[in-house]
Description:
The protein contains 15 helices and 14 strands. The chain is α/β, with parallel strands linked by helices. It has a single domain, classed as Glycosidases (TIM Barrel, Alpha-Beta Barrel), CATH 3.20.20.80. The radius of gyration is 22 Å and the shape is globular. The two termini are about 30 Å apart. Pfam families: Glyco_hydro_1. This is 6-phospho-beta-glucosidase. Keywords: Glycosidase, Hydrolase.
Amino acid sequence: MDKSFLWGGSTSAFQFEGGGHEGRKGKSIYDIREEKTQVKYSVTSDFYHHYKEDIALMAEMGFSAFRMSIAWTRLYPTGVEETPNFEGIKFYQDVFQELKKNKIEPVVTLFHWDMPQYLVEKYDGFKSREIITYFERYAETCFKEFGQYVKYWLTLNENNLAMMIPWMYIKDKNNYPKEEHAQLAWDCYYHSILCHFKAVKRGHELLPDAKFGNMTASAIAYPLTPKPEDVLATQKHNQRTMWDDLDILTSGEINPSFKQRMADEGVVINISDEDRELMADSNAKIDFISFSYYFSLCTQAAENRNNSEAETMQMLYQGFYNPYLSRTSFGWQIDPLGIRIFMNEAYSRYHLPLLVVENGIGVEDEVLTKDKRVHDDYRIDYLAKHIHQIIKTVDEDKTPVLGFLPWGCIDLYSASGNYNKRYGFVYVDFEDDLARYKKDSFWWYKKVIASNGKELEKIDSTDCNKQS
Length: 468
């Protein structure tokens, strides 16, 4: 492993930052969800007020990088203002300066799902081309105000999922009859990738030394059986959920099979000459591929499903559990080798460096002991096995990997809407003034980073107590 390998962790603004009603921040779709469900989203883990403490914890673990996102509504409260909110700019400048002081490289996501609510109300989010102008203005502001601090930029979080969940930013999906759903999904996706291309192009122009990437949700699938039909179904799944999007982002062109599938669903694809020029621009091409990886799945051809006794995965993807893999308490399959398979496949297709920006095990019943400890051997075991495969990917397969930034390095608010699902190395006590406590995995990860991934063995809990 190269000594420049980035070790750290990841969060997002809407799940970690808090301060939802401070600093003239506007309302995003998650603020509105909070008002409807009466959860304390505006507080979350309150990085807004705890950022120095949290960055100190990251530095103590030895982080060389920290992935975070910028809240669009903290810079542009409704998304359409002519000038940005200075209080928001000042907050992020303070955070970046604190990170740099602690020798931690910020890895910044421009858009991690927290769409300004005004853009939803007025334009149905990415449904309208109007949003491209506002996103470009927002991205340019980020590059100009924070470019001196940030080398690594990600555009839109897990945007390959956009066609599967177009309702995220729609004011009222009942406004769209069923026969329009496929067109709606394409329109939302298409306008979102134009936002991506605009941001990457402008970023390369303004920050020639910076690196720009996307962020892909990996959904690597295996055939449930060796039947040729299942193998073909698996190829189609992986193409549809991952490679179609990456093909466009890396080449600027939509592959013919994607176009045919859209045509079969009655979708009209209109690409202007100006859009083609943008997508083909060398300045609009990504420098690396970042991705999330939590689990793999199995697929099966439709004609074989009636005769299958396999258990169906109840997730976004229509898939089946792998009988050879165990699962987390949350029901996600544990497949460390899968991350290696995904990375090697992605590199063989696109020949771009890879960056792991999400990985980890979410646990809903984590216990804080009376002496304020969390004995999370399950997290250590999960992460150790994945890191082991990443190291093999680099050292044996010679696939370039820039770093490992597991998800929720300090406990945060789940995107599914609760505080109970925990990923972090640091426990946040949501019932006791958001106090922070180091888990056993904190000390283990500190050792992993110090050894550059060479020491993955579990630390005895008594040693953790001594260190704390």
